[in-house]
Design a protein that fits this description.
Residues 1-75 are annotated as: Disordered. The protein contains 15 helices and no strands. The protein is mainly alpha-helical and 383 residues long. The protein has a domain at 79-180.
C-alpha cells in the first residue's frame, strides 16, 4: 500500500466506527457474549503540581516536666502535715510583702478541705495573725487579698467554736463589708450599706455595762493588767484562813459557784463580742462618710447615716457622740448640695432628690389626660 493511501486512512482514525447492522444471534452465541470481562477501574484523578505533599507530623516526645515549687493542699496530706503548713504560713502572713502569697495558700487549704475540727484552732490562728493590725485590712494594696481570704473563710465557719465564729464575723465586717465601700460598683456599694444597716438593727440597746466594757478595752493597752492586792484584801484573806484552818472548804465542790462563774464568763464574752462589733460598724460608717463626694454614693450614704442616727441607742456613749457628729456633717453637706450650683448651673442633687423635685410639679390625671403635664399629647395615637 502506498504512502498516500496510508495518509488517507489516517484522516479517519479519530472518527467513531459505523453502526454495525443488526444480526440475529443464536442462543449459544448469546451465552458467550454475556460473559464479558469486568470493566477497567477509572483512571486516577490528576493532582495539581502546585499542591504540596502533606508532611507527616514528627513523633511526639514528652516534654521534660517544668520545675515549679507547688504547695501540697490535697486531702491526701496527713493532719500533721496540714498543721505544720498552717504554722509556717502563720509566720509569713504577718509580713506585708508576703501577705498576698500567704493568703492564696490559705485559700487553697480551705478549698482542699484541710480545715476540719481537728485543725480549726491552727486555722483560726492564721486568721488571728492576719488581723493583728486591724487597720491594715483597709490598706489599698491589701484590700483585695483580705476580701478574698475572709470571704473564703465563711465556707468553713461551721467548723469553728462559738467564740471563734463571733470573732470571724467581726473581722468579716472590717475585711469584707468595709472594703466593699471602696468599690466603684454601685450595686456592690448598696449591698454593703444594706448589710451594715441590718447589722445595726440587730444590735441590742447599749447599757452601762457596755460603756464599762468599752472603757476597759480602751484601758487594756495602757495598763499592764497586773492586779495589786490591797491591805483590806490581805486582811480578808487572813480571816478566811482562820475560819477554815485546814482548807476543807476549798475541797468541797460548790456547784452554784461553778454555774455562776460559767454564766459570768459567757456574759462577759458576749459583751466583748458586741463591743468589737459596734466598733467595726462605726469604722464602716466613717469609711462611707468619706465617700460622700462621689455623686452616686450620696443616696445610699444618706439612708445609712439616717438609719444609724435613728438607732443611736444601740451604741455606747462615746459611739453615740461619733454618730451624732457624722449625721450633722452629712446633713450639712446635703444642705450645701441643694443650695450650691454646679458647673451646668443646675442644683447639685443626687438621683433620688432630682426625681423627687421633678415629679413634685407634675400633674397626673386618672382620666383622659395622659401627657406628662396633662396636655393630652398622647391621646391621638392612643386612639
Amino acid at each position: 500500500m502506498s504512502k498516500e493511501r496510508m495518509g488517507g486512512d489516517d484522516l479517519f482514525k479519530d472518527l467513531p466506527p459505523p453502526n454495525a447492522p443488526q444480526i440475529q444471534i443464536s442462543s449459544s452465541t448469546t451465552q458467550q457474549s454475556s460473559t464479558k470481562p469486568p470493566p477497567l477501574p477509572p483512571a486516577p484523578a490528576l493532582k495539581s503540581a502546585l499542591k504540596r505533599p502533606k508532611l507527616q507530623p514528627p513523633p511526639q516526645t514528652e516534654a521534660p516536666p517544668e520545675k515549679r515549687l507547688r504547695f501540697k493542699t490535697t486531702t491526701d496530706a496527713s493532719e500533721k502535715q496540714v498543721i505544720e503548713a498552717m504554722h509556717k504560713i502563720a509566720s509569713h502572713i504577718k509580713n506585708r510583702s508576703k501577705f498576698s502569697k500567704a493568703t492564696k495558700l490559705v485559700i487553697q487549704l480551705i478549698q482542699a478541705g484541710s480545715v476540719k475540727p481537728a485543725t480549726k484552732d491552727d486555722f483560726f490562728a492564721l486568721l488571728e495573725a492576719s488581723m493583728l493590725l486591724s487597720t491594715t485590712c483597709n490598706d489599698p494594696s491589701l484590700r483585695e487579698d483580705y476580701h478574698a481570704l475572709f470571704s473564703a473563710a465563711q465556707d468553713v465557719a461551721d467548723c469553728l467554736s462559738e467564740k471563734q465564729q463571733n470573732l470571724l464575723s467581726t473581722w468579716t465586717i472590717r475585711a469584707v463589708w468595709a472594703n466593699d465601700l471602696f468599690t466603684d460598683d454601685s450595686f456592690v456599694f448598696s449591698k454593703a450599706t444594706g448589710r451594715i444597716k441590718e447589722s445595726i438593727s440587730n444590735l441590742p440597746i447599749a447599757t452601762k455595762d457596755d460603756d464599762d466594757m468599752e472603757e476597759a478595752i480602751a484601758l487594756k493597752d495602757e495598763t499592764s493588767g497586773v492586779l495589786v492586792v490591797t491591805s483590806d484584801e490581805h486582811v480578808n484573806k487572813e480571816e478566811e484562813e482562820e475560819s477554815d484552818p485546814f482548807g476543807l472548804d476549798s475541797l468541797i465542790p460548790k456547784k452554784a459557784e461553778k454555774i455562776k462563774g460559767k454564766k459570768d464568763a459567757k456574759e462577759e464574752e458576749k459583751r466583748r463580742f458586741l463591743a468589737s462589733q459596734r466598733e467595726a460598724l462605726i469604722s464602716c460608717l466613717e469609711i462611707a462618710a468619706k465617700r460622700y463626694k462621689t455623686p452616686w454614693c450620696q443616696t445610699a450614704i444618706d439612708i445609712l447615716a439616717k438609719h444609724a442616727f435613728d438607732n443611736i441607742s444601740r451604741f455606747t456613749t462615746l459611739q453615740r457622740e461619733a454618730i451624732h457628729k457624722l449625721w450633722v456633717s452629712i446633713r450639712d453637706q446635703q444642705t450645701r448640695r441643694k443650695q450650691g450650683k454646679s458647673v451646668s448651673g443646675k442644683l447639685d442633687l443626687n438621683a433620688f432628690e432630682s426625681l423627687q423635685q421633678k415629679y413634685s410639679t407634675e400633674k397626673i390625671s386618672i382620666r383622659r389626660s395622659v401627657g406628662g403635664s396633662g396636655d393630652r399629647k398622647c391621646q391621638q395615637w392612643l386612639g
